[in-house]
Amino acid sequence: MDVGPVAVTTSRPDKPFDLDDLQAAWATFARIRREKSDITTEQVVLNRELTLDGTTIHLKLDNTLQVDFLTELKPDLLGYLRSELQNSQIKLEHQVVFQEVKKMIYSSQDKYNYLAEKNPALHELRKVLNLDVDY
User: Which of 55, 46, 58, 47 is nearest to 97 (CA)?
Assistant: First the structure.
């Protein structure tokens, strides 16, 4: 009874890697993607600071648009990193961290309130000198 050729899969052991190895491979991938398609948002996602926890890469993003780009890139990125770093256990996790938007100071009242918050003695000075905020 001839079964035919049997495919033998040999799994190679995963090589350990550190943050420097990861950053070098990540930068190479970013350069390759930039040469293929120079999409600014994609480059913003790829030029983020990385942290490494074992074989899990952590990436902080600013908004959901960046999440969409990362989701689109993820299969190619993980395939490239797993191949370059010779480790099939690499995972990528992201977290959206919204940045606090500072209120812009436009009016005289806004400027006064901002300065008075920094130095409460300004309230007393304004009262003693009988000054108006608007000028």
Answer: 58
